[in-house]
Write a structure and sequence with these properties.
The chain is of the alpha+beta class. The protein is built from 15 helices and 15 strands. The radius of gyration is 23 Å and the shape is globular. The termini are far apart.
Length: about 425
Amino acid sequence: MTPIRIRTGRTTAVRFVSAVAVVLVSGLAAVLNPPAAAADAGPWPDAKEPSVASLPPDYWHQPLAAQGEAPQEWSELERSLAPEACGQCHDDKYEQWRTSLHAQAFSPGLVGQLLTYDAAQTASCMECHAPLAEQKQAFEAARARGQAHQPAAQGLAAAGNSCAGCHLRRYRRYGPPERETGATGQSDPGTAHGGVFRSPDFEASEFCAACHQHDPAYAINGKPLENTVVEWRASPQAAQGITCQGCHMPERKHLWRGIHDPDMVARGLSARFHAGREAARFDLTNSGVGHAFPTYITPKVVMRAVALDASGAPRPGTAVSRVIQRTVGVRGGRWVEFSDTRLLPGETASLTLPWQGAERIRMWLDVYPDDYYDEQVYDALLAQLPAQGAPARLIAAADARARASRYRLFETELTRPD
């Protein structure tokens, strides 16, 4: 694996916290106050020496360089950066991508915020949400025309994190080893779009680090806002050789399912219920998630229990809950961590409710994938933005989408033992 420097994470973290601070602290420009000349995070400690099949060392250097000029002999289809062009031959991957959150990365919630940012702040956010230089150019062109709020006018930017963002650099295609033979290196350059350079780096978790691991120079209570790859490196999955792609891209499917997908989340957890003589207990174990559950600060997960009356209705005053989440905020102009109750791999959280005369108790898990945006970011923005403007309309749509993402798992009713 070519040593990877996590430059994107540092920049993204700074812009993110600055933007949220503005809306949450009445204009206070609160940032994380790292060292004045913080260096890059540097290569991973056990990064392998580059090989002939390694990706270029600047592959994830942000901002990505423009593609430049495509070979003159290429067809219009080969020159295109649009995912639809890739789908002409890679139709299965394209159809999978269309259903993914990568395809939705340039979302109404993001665009609503970008419309209030200057070009530099916008470019920083787009490093992961629409990483191509050509996407930034397309969005700024739409902004100059007063049409940046319209997806149809955003051009390539509207594609979000698309095929070219991961697979194309200076009009050279890159991808994983050949599926059947494991072959790496450059394929036949006489084939479509000059062939493809195949690298095992595409199958390494570090490939995902540019957008899923923030720089430790910007940390809250010793942990970056997004610390997923570091969490994975300490996990049993990493020790077993199970990478990010092994769970989020099984069989190379371009789906990237995560916290928004109930089936994916249920497979990563073990829920156990016990009806004891004195109380009912709900145990939730992170049995299969190869990082903290949930990772990042955005989701909230709540274990819940309530006693039921004879008709099956909840008995007033009996509900109990346990929150599983990392919570942060601004105090005295600095970001602080209020709590971190997330479950590391193998850890268990328990919730107990005494019977207190009830014969039945209901227990379940509520998942709020977009809680931080729903409860804090979007509400704060809507309180400040002109109600009839395009940014407010986009944020309101995003807020509704965030609320609609909630779901319930493992709902069970226990009966008091005789």
